[in-house]
Write a structure and sequence with these properties.
3% strand; two-stranded antiparallel ribbon; Na+/H+ antiporter like fold; mainly alpha; 453 residues; single chain
Length: 453
Amino acid sequence: MKFYAPWEKTFNKISTPFEHFIHAQTTTGKVLMLMTVFALMLANTPLAENYEYFFHTKIDLNVGSWQLSHSIHYWINDGLMTVFFFLIGLEIKREILVGELSDIKVAILPILAAIGGMVFPALIYLSVNIDGPGVSGWGIPMATDIAFAISALILLGKRVPTALVTFLVALAIVDDLGAVLVIAIFYTDQIQLVPLALSIVAFLILVVFNRFGIHMILPYFVVGVFMWFFMLESGVHATIAGIISAMAIPSKPKQAPFSFVKDAKKLLDKYNQYPTCENHMLHEDQKAILINLQDRIDAVGSPASRLEQVLHLPVALIVIPLFALANAGIAIDFNHISSSIIEPVSIGIILGLILGKVLGIFGIAWLAIKLKIAKLPYQSSMSQIFGVAFLGGIGFTMSIFVADLAFLNTPELIFQAKIGILSASLLAGLFGFLWLKYMAKDLTRLPHNPNTK
């Protein structure tokens, strides 16, 4: 009998990178939900003071006279989250090269819907906060939390077609790219030119590694760490280094797939020439053949795909949960929550994430389809796109991240923003899920018709 470690049995069933990606996102969504509830509980119990004290504890890095001193909260948001952004960068690159965004005819609908889903929420937020102290938070409702949104869609099972899931994935990937650009351009206070120039040099070194065909991960990691540090010192948010460095990781295999098949057959034929021992021990030459075969397998897979696969689980189970634990702990005064939720910042975020996302995603998708610029995902209906537009209003991870940048050193506005994000994400997620489950037209149960809309 074979015993499986947690998740191993599930992962053994996964046959494609896309399925692996979806599984990782649903795992992230489940763990993220649990950690969010846990953080809220900690912040509203007698342990709240210990909770705050822990995440504001300083961790120092000292080399001679040089010192880097930040709180645990800072190291999570600017350090660990760089790994999350690096993974997003790898996902964006994969989608552009071989995924849903590689074919412009397929990609045009999620791209347009994502742009609409960023512009409309920002405009609605600005219309509420244009003359107020929270005006800089316009980027908060632009983001979609891919893990939560996909988790809600996957829970519906066969009620939603696969094409609708890929539509949401592509939309969220474009959304993430837009959020990263907003952070890099609009949420950078003061730029130090020398460190910024050094970070650019570090990136160029990564590009040189790529062009020279270096497939070892270690050189990219070392230079990437230096790039992160220079970006941190430049004033540009350090997590941007994660996205940019991902673009330099090789996506092409060292060995062509067709030659791998031929070489693998030869090695397996040599392996089979040795008789099987009674105790099932391998011959020394068989061990060498297996090592050679493993090297060939590594060569036919690109560093980008290997890193994406390796990082999904640590990001899902460590990075994102720690981020939620450090940022979702809101001490809620229930006597004053009603007054906080009607503040312009909270109202702007709630309207942006719910009304803005629906107008942007569903409205632009409907217009693009009517104008024949794009077509509906296979076996999907406009009522399902309407439900997905609501799921796009789940803005948890990236929205909280942007809120901390937009309202730096303004705890009151950060609190209002987080109240708005949690409220809007909960309402959008519940309505989107219930709409898709009970109201949306399910074309997967109708007779096969590729042209059905």
